[in-house]
């Protein structure tokens, strides 16, 4: 049985290498990557989010922006803090970040 995520066809060893043409595929990939960047209930600084995204793409700033625009990551108006806006089906996949035990709200 193959437990690979359908988003894997756009990734090369976990890195986003091919942008999907279809909107549904783009959403699939962004949700998949969001589950690997920030866990639900976790808050990070902009630098921390960018550091986590860097291994996933050649353009971490662009991916961070895409995740925010897709409604997967939220951010304060000054860009200082980021969080997951919603859970996705990818949160239960192997490689997804677990929710922190101690959720805090800055």
Description:
The chain has 106 residues and is α+β, with helices and mostly antiparallel strands. The strands form two sheets. Strands 3-5-4 form a three-stranded antiparallel beta sheet. A two-stranded antiparallel sheet has the order 1-2. Helix 2 (46-53) packs across helix 3. The longest helix has 15 residues, at 23-37. The chain is globular, with a radius of gyration of 13 Å. It has one domain (6-92): Arc Repressor Mutant, subunit A, CATH 1.10.10. Helices cover 31% and strands 13% of the residues. A hairpin with a 2-residue loop joins strand 1 and strand 2 (15-16). The mean pLDDT is 86.
Quick recap of the structure?
It is built from 3 helices and 5 strands. It starts with 10 loop residues before the first strand and ends in a 22-residue tail after the last strand. A hairpin with a 5-residue loop joins β4 and β5.
The secondary-structure class comes to: alpha+beta
CATH class: Mainly Alpha
**Average pLDDT:** 86
Calculate the terminal CA-CA distance, rounded to whole Å. 43 Å
Q: Radius of gyration in whole Å, from Cα? A: 13 Å
Helical residues, percent: 25-40%
Main pleated-sheet profile: 3 strands, antiparallel
Helix-strand topology string: EEHEHHEE
Assign the CATH architecture. Orthogonal Bundle
Draw up the topology in text.
Elements (H helix, E strand, L loop, with lengths): L10 E2 L2 E2 L6 H15 L5 E3 H8 L6 H10 L3 E3 L5 E4 L22
Antiparallel strand pairs: 1-2, 3-5, 4-5
């Amino acid at each position: 049985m193959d437990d690979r995520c359908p988003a894997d066809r756009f990734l090369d060893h976990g890195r986003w290498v091919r942008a999907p043409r279809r909107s549904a595929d783009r959403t699939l990939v962004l949700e998949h990557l969001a589950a690997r960047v920030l866990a639900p209930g976790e808050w990070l600084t902009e630098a921390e989010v960018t550091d986590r995204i860097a291994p996933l793409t050649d353009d971490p700033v662009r991916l961070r922006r895409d995740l925010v625009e897709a409604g997967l990551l939220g951010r304060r108006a000054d860009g200082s803090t980021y969080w997951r806006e919603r859970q996705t089906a990818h949160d239960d996949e192997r490689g997804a970040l677990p929710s922190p035990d101690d959720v805090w709200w800055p």
